[in-house]
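Lecture 7 notes: from sequence to structure.

We start with a single chain of 148 residues. Read the sequence below before looking at the structure.
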Amino acid sequence: MVDYDNPWLFKGSPFLSENIDDLYGFVYCITNTDNDKKYIGRKYFWQYRKPRGKTRRVRSESDWKKYYGSSEELNEERRRLGNSAFRREILSVHESKGRVNFEETRQLFLHSVLTEALDNGEPKYYNSNILGRYYKKDYFSWKSSMES
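Now the structure, written as tokens:
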């Protein structure tokens, strides 16, 4: 039974805590259903915290059910339009942190998140960079200077 709002969909069905098993995290796509603008990212199912006064870290389930990405632009639109205006899809699930991170980067390049545009010329993706090294602003400023 779905125990959270606007559930993540994986292969067309809601993803639940009981589906996690030995998985470490997932790569996702969030789509604004009003304008088809998207965000690709990753999220881990687990968080590791060191309780005060303790020496060992404790594993607990992360906030993945409530998560809507780290893009400020996406979250501003989400606050304005409401969560129901966004479709959350899990693209892939992985058993290690390294696989999650690799697949996120692969998907960002495969979908050309820094260069793709909507029909109106606006960026198709909320993503602003890849790995903190490649930036959308560099591409779009380059593109407009090349056209003039």
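The chain has a mean pLDDT of 92. Keep this in mind for problem set 3.
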